[in-house]
């Protein structure tokens, strides 16, 4: 272990977050972020505890979140390191519902979709790190919220724990008929994490003045192999629809407000969540690949301590 | 001629406006508006003079704009009738740069695209009723503005009269190469009136945080025969783009502000324009079909007096 230099801290990581965006970083092609450099620490969100500090703003014992990467310890100048000040909340929640996925959901709902009471909202990957928070925030706004998820177990969790009005299994043979039945009057807001057929079917059912928040297209494959086409832009004109793609790291200035609001909901018990935890750094690659295949249930974490 | 009943006015039409949206109304299919009823007066914007009034707000001699339809006279309760209070401006301009096309341009630029100084804006149908105003408003905002139009004559008019920085002829054999050369660093704002290949090429060249205002898709055909597909929504996510379809009649509350601003520009000589005038109501159908084929040069009008 290196020592902390003047102005630095050493953080012992407790949890590493695994997120779909990481797959994009592994491509050489230009995406919304620079590719992951070879022979460098793999990027990743982390929570942990300051174990040594020569930085005025941090003391040993502080709980922090940051982008520490796939490693047990990180040395930091404090840049991008955020103190966690809610001792009643499990620390790993700051990688999930109170971390980047939760903040992305908060932004998509509050800055793009802005669902009104009585509107219909669909959320794909409805029980995932982002989707689970998006669905619950849409419910708090008074919307009717329809989840789309893979498998009956996730769909049950969506309705029974997360409070979705309905959840449709995209693996069901009669998926399209079920989704149609769940959207008899169409959809006002689409919170999109997946792309592919579920999104195409929602687009066919857009109502006037509908909005689509494009947060992820994981089913298109982060190798870009499977495009998600839009058959005809005319529907966007006819329905006066707005589609907006966003990447949450463009909106860092909003993180404190988002985390604060989400943490309040969490402490009030209004934010249900679940997690899948892999044990130890060596389990991270397999867990990461599994998450891209939808094997996780809720937020995928790696426990490092 | 019927007499004006109590609370009504009779308007003598001076000009009828021909606009692409009319073609959509001729379809039975659901679009953003109700289909044109058969055996009813064909819808259309008009300007003219009140020749008889039993309405408190209008007097004989008032110049007015409204939706009088394809006829020489209209009887009106005053609903949708707007007094024209700028005697220095040719009355037919209130069907063009100061009418629905101009207001649509104003809305697309000011409410959707909001181009910043130095940003790159493309405008398709660059010399048309909407495009000519959109391009000039984008220039006033300090943007670099690239027009797309059909034929060298329109392109010359775009640069020499309307002030476009460049205009690319979409009929040129090397159109794609020319557009690429005109957009060496890509495009920030797309004001779209046409769809089809010009839009597809602009989408391939979107910059980060770009916006697309979808005002029309006339090249897709108002019979919906030729879709304008978006090959892969991933570009919208990667570029954090916003696409928004709009129909100006949804925003009637903004008309007075828009007309006032546009009329100020017009009186100051900052709003170049041109028009193609067909003579007499019987010339309207042929002029309408010609306009859908791009035969008009600037705003297509029919002179009725």
Describe the structure.
The structure is a homodimer of 305-residue chains. Chain A is an alpha/beta fold and 305 residues long. Chain A has two domains: 9-96 and 273-303, Medium-chain alcohol dehydrogenases, catalytic domain (Quinone Oxidoreductase, Chain A, domain 1, Alpha-Beta Complex); 100-249, NAD(P)-binding Rossmann-like Domain (Rossmann fold). Chain A is built from nine helices and 13 strands. In chain A, the strands form two sheets. In chain A, strands 1, 2, 3, 4, 5, 12 and 13 form a seven-stranded mixed beta sheet that branches. In chain A, helix 2 (100-113) crosses helix 3 and helix 2 (100-113) crosses helix 8. Chain A is globular and about 60 Å long. Strand 11 (242-245) of chain A pairs antiparallel with strand 11 of chain B, so a sheet runs across the interface.
Can you give keywords for this protein?
homodimer, 305 residues, alpha/beta, Quinone Oxidoreductase, Chain A, domain 1, Rossmann fold, 2 domains, 7-stranded mixed sheet, 6-stranded parallel sheet, 9 helices, 13 strands, 28% helix
């Amino acid at each position: 272990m290196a020592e902390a230099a003047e102005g630095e801290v050493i953080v012992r990581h407790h949890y590493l977050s695994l997120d779909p965006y990481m797959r994009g970083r592994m491509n050489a092609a230009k995406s919304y972020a620079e590719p992951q450099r070879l022979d460098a620490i793999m990027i990743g969100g982390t929570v942990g505890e300051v174990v040594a500090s020569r930085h005025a703003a941090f003391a040993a014992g502080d709980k922090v979140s940051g982008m520490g990467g796939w490693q047990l310890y990180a040395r930091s100048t404090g840049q991008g390191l955020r103190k966690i000040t809610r001792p009643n909340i499990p620390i790993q929640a700051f990688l999930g519902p109170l971390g980047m996925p939760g903040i992305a959901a908060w932004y998509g709902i509050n800055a793009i979709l802005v669902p009104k009471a009585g509107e219909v909202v669909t959320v794909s990957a409805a029980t995932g790190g982002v989707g689970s928070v998006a669905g619950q925030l849409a419910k708090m706004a008074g919307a009717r919220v329809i989840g789309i998820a893979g498998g009956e177990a996730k769909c049950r969790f969506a309705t029974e724990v997360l409070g979705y009005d309905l959840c449709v299994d995209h693996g069901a043979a009669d998926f399209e008929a079920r989704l149609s039945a769940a959207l008899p009057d169409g959809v006002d807001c689409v919170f999109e994490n997946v792309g592919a057929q579920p999104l195409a079917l929602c687009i066919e059912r857009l109502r006037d003045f509908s909005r689509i928040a494009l947060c992820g297209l994981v089913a298109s494959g982060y190798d870009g192999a499977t495009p998600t086409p839009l058959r005809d832009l005319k529907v966007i004109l006819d329905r006066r629809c707005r589609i907006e793609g966003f990447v949450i790291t463009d909106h860092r200035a909003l993180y404190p407000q988002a985390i604060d609001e989400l943490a309040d909901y969490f402490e009030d018990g209004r934010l249900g969540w679940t997690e899948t935890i892999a044990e130890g750094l060596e389990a991270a690659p397999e867990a990461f690949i599994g998450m891209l295949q939808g094997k996780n249930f809720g937020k995928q974490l790696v426990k490092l301590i």
